[in-house]
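tl;dr need the bound structure. longer version: we got a ligand (FE2/S2 (inorganic) cluster) that a collaborator sent over and nobodys looked at where it sits. i said id run it. heres the input, straight from their email, havent touched it
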Amino acid sequence: MKCRKCGGAAVLELRRHNAAFCTPDFLEFFRNQIREAIRRWRMFGPDEHVLVAVSGGKDSLALWDVLLEEGYRTTGLYLDLGIFDYSVESRAKCERFAATRGVPLLVRPVADEVGAPVPVIQRVTRRPPCSGCGLSKRYLLNRVALEHGFPVVATGHNLDDEAATLFGSVLHWQTEALARQSPALASTHPKLVRRVKPLYRLSERETAAYAFLRRIDYIVEECPFAEGATSIAHKQILSRMEDASPGAKHNFLFGYLDRARAAFERAEAVELRECARCGQVTTGTLCAFCKLADQVKRAT
Ligand code: AMP
Ligand code: FES
Ligand code: ZN
């Protein structure tokens, strides 16, 4: 196998691109995909301070690494979900990454904000842990960004994540979710911070290779609640399709973004208000996060 760029010995084959790369040319390919994502979706400019949401996993730490290499001004944000050893270890990975590079990291325990950690939220709501967890993450990423005046939040969602989310939304024709599926969500209200996903062009295998080649120390274990989640089943189905036909995930997601997304976006203009309690954006009177916090308070 020879590197497409330099003809030297390749370390990684990317069937979807019909190419193979040596280490330096793969790293450059990886950074180029992120540069292209940032440029094409006007994610942020060189002078904007980016809040990078880091989970301690390969994707978000690889993203932070590239943004630092590219000279962006960044601060990390780790939300401590209180999920036993998993949270202790993933927090330590983020802290070590930030300390060795001398960059700032904010840490916010979800329990301080909601009143209980994710495992208790799950018991109280009797819903899958990922639902209270996902809601809390989305809410707190936005609120922390607002409180500190960051114009944009970047997450480590990759091509596999985005294709699986799209697949799930299509299976149930969730038109609101389809309208929001995008590598860049603009701020549509003064209290909504722009959200971007600079890794959407890169697969999970590619971010794992990048993290390995750059010797990034990340948490390999998945969240213990992830087992059996439908999003994982959807990823497995898409990966089987990808094996049979390289490029399937890419074509599915990129075809949607290029050709179908606009139709859903037009259909879903909703009126946004401010939550009567916390002032964050909602479509109702009280936001979903405040309702969740009330439910937790009543039960604990
Ligand atoms: P996940 O939903 O776990 O696949 O994570 C998707 C992205 O959300 C990650 O790449 C991070 O950018 C962000 N994220 C997930 N968990 C956390 C966390 N505990 N703290 C901050 N950001 C997170
Ligand atoms: Fe949220 Fe696992 S990370 S439930
Ligand atoms: Zn609220």
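gonna send this back to them w/ a short note. The CA atoms of residues 129 and 280 lie 23 Å apart.
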